[in-house]
Design a protein that fits this description.
- This protein is of the alpha/beta class.
- Helix content is 46%, strand content 15%.
- It has eleven helices and 14 strands.
- The strands form four sheets. The chain has a six-stranded parallel β-sheet with strand order 3-2-1-4-5-7, sandwiched between helices. Strands 6-8-12 form a three-stranded parallel β-sheet. A three-stranded mixed β-sheet has the order 9-11-13.
- It is globular and about 55 Å long.
- The chain starts with a strand and ends with a helix.
- The structure holds serine.
- Serine binds next to strand 9.
Length: 323
């Protein structure tokens, strides 16, 4: 029977993936972990504090829980990684190799996300093929390419069933992202509701690849449920959904907040990172090998973001009034 351990469960992907895993497989078989105290992030189900840089602690938790699948999400995102590259290297690389080693020793399957950041300025920009030149210019990208190679290595050398997705920027209303270059596409919604105005850290015409979190979570579940024999690629599949610029996103937001205004103060670090990534990934191999298909287009995503954020605000207001 499946028993699932999640690392980084309090983070941007982890929050929503854990909720989905609890629904799909049940609360008794899903253990959410994060380096932070559960009181600061856990909502329901089994949760505990775990630092995946501590190999002994990781091994103990995996063995004690009897995990069969590890969803390894603990990582530092791109802009935060440029602020402290050595810390990002330590967390992104050592965390992953520990997970893979424990998986090799215990027979666990592993999911870990890669990213559009695994590509660099020499990669074809539109679209970036599944198999192509990967020479990223960021520390985050370096750890993602090395992570893909490590996962493939543990698969061929030790038979670990390791699978991954190269995600574009992810947009969601549940947990805020932390330190990504694509974070603007989430912050802009909060700013639109708070003050109808946003100062964007990227130029208006910076076209980036993006996906709504609901599609991303479904992609993870579908990839992990796909028969192993159908997968030619494992680490990691390109997946994509939407491509838009900050100016186009602002137009889509004005459908819901007509007075919304945007100005631009490009941050040199984030702009350089965005410019080094492809505008679009070619995800035809994911579509062919395990039936990937995105559902949310830009207007659907924007409408659902406002619905979700307004529900959250109403819930907080009701909670504050009840205290
Ligand atoms: N969303 C991530 C970032 O901007 C890309 O994987 O860092």
């Amino acid at each position: 029977m499946k028993r699932i351990l999640v690392t980084g469960a309090g983070g941007q992907i982890g929050t929503e993936l854990t909720a989905r895993l609890l629904d799909r497989y049940g609360p008794a078989v899903t253990l959410a972990t994060d380096v932070r105290e559960p009181a600061t992030w856990a909502r329901s189900g089994l949760a505990e504090q775990l630092d995946c840089l501590d190999l002994g602690a990781l091994r103990t938790v995996v063995t004690r829980f009897g995990a069969t699948d590890i969803f390894h999400l603990a990582a530092i995102l791109s802009a935060a990684a440029e602020a402290d590259p050595l810390r990002a290297y330590r967390i992104n690389m050592n965390g992953l190799v520990n997970v893979l080693q424990v998986a090799a020793d215990t027979g666990c399957r592993v999911f870990t996300p890669s990213s559009i950041a695994a590509f660099g300025p020499e990669t074809p920009r539109d679209p970036a093929p599944q198999s192509t030149l990967q020479r990223p210019t960021t520390m985050y990208g370096v750890t993602k390419v090395a992570g893909e190679l490590l996962c493939d290595y543990y698969h061929t050398r030790f038979g670990v069933d390791a699978r991954g997705l190269r995600f574009p920027g992810l947009v969601s209303y549940t947990a805020p992202p932390g330190g990504g270059t694509t974070d603007y596409a989430v912050e802009i919604f909060h700013a639109a509701l708070d003050r109808s105005r946003y100062t964007c850290p990227l130029k208006p015409d910076t076209r980036m690849d993006m996906m709504y979190m609901a599609d991303a979570i479904r992609a993870i579940i579908e990839l992990m449920e796909a028969p192993s024999a159908s997968l030619v690629h494992r680490n990691a599949f390109n997946v994509t959904a939407l491509q838009f610029t900050p100016a186009e996103l602002a137009d889509a937001i004005r459908v819901h907040v007509p007075a919304f205004a945007i100005d631009y103060e490009p941050d040199p670090v984030r702009q350089a990172i965005a410019d080094s990534w492809p505008e679009r990934l070619d995800d035809s191999e994911a579509r062919e090998q395990w039936g990937w298909r995105h559902e949310y287009e830009l207007p659907d995503m924007v409408a659902d973001m406002f619905r979700g954020l307004r529900t959250n605000l109403a819930r907080h207001a009701a909670g504050a009034a009840g205290r």
